[in-house]
Design goal:
Layout: H1 3-13, E1 31-34, E2 37-41, E3 44-53, H2 57-67, E4 72-77, E5 80-87, E6 90-100, E7 103-111, E8 132-141, E9 144-153, H3 157-169, E10 174-176, E11 189-195, E12 198-207, E13 210-218
Antiparallel strand pairs: 1-3, 2-3, 2-8, 3-7, 4-5, 5-6, 6-7, 8-9, 9-13, 10-11, 11-12, 12-13
């Protein structure tokens, strides 16, 4: 799983139920890039923006702290800083990371008005017994649909793996040798599946007494 997808999972984990999109001012000389079309988080439509600017990480944090106004919360996670704001219109969460001494990047997540029917939260995949869903997200970039599902349970790694192998096999996706890009540090197990319509990575990690599984699908057969 790429660093961007991990960052988005963390960003989404900080986001509660949302109301509607809000306008957030950009830093000076910033470049704005839309990330994903038809994006959903736990069934809620969201908008994701990538903002880069020739300013330090702290200056970017200060900008969003001021731009978001009152009731701002700032949380540090490793080298990343998350700035969030909640009001009657919903919540905006910004993840800021340094790109160098005088350059930084912000991923801005905000709600959008609901349109149409939201996707199935597990994309039709049955979770192992005793699981609790952590995150479900879906977005489309340049015609390619990416889906991420995270869940936790106290099952063994082998039991989770066996369950996923059966579930993906029912959908025409077979286990394959994972490419080098699938390597994830500190993962207990990384499983790669391929099928006629796409591929999927399942990463299982230890989290105390629980196992956390993150599944990333690209143009997969799960709906």
């Amino acid at each position: 799983m790429s660093r961007t997808r991990i960052a988005l999972a963390l960003l989404l984990a900080l986001l509660p139920v949302l109301a509607r999109a809000q306008v957030v001012p950009l830093p000076r000389d910033a470049h704005l890039e839309r990330m994903g079309e038809n994006a959903y988080f736990n069934g809620i439509p969201v908008q994701i923006e990538r903002v880069t600017a020739p300013i330090s990480q702290q200056s970017m944090v200060d900008h969003y702290r001021e731009a978001l106004g009152d009731r701002v919360r700032v949380v540090e996670h490793g080298k990343d800083v998350f700035v969030s704001h909640l009001d009657e219109n919903g919540m905006i969460t910004v993840r800021v990371v340094a790109q160098g001494p005088i350059a930084s990047e912000a991923l801005v997540m905000k709600s959008t008005p609901p349109t149409g029917n939201p996707p199935n939260l597990t994309f039709g995949l049955l979770l192992p017994a005793g699981s609790r869903m952590l995150t479900s997200m879906q977005s489309t970039d340049h015609g390619v649909t990416a889906k991420t599902l995270a869940f936790a349970n106290d099952n063994t790694v082998n039991a989770i793996e066996a369950h996923l192998v059966r579930q993906f096999a029912e959908r025409g996706m077979q286990r394959a040798i994972a490419p080098a890009r699938a390597a994830v540090p500190n993962a207990a197990r990384v499983i790669y599946f391929r099928g006629p319509a796409g591929d999927a990575f399942a990463t299982i990690t230890e989290s105390g007494a629980e196992r956390v599984t993150i599944i990333n699908l690209t143009d997969g057969q799960l709906r």
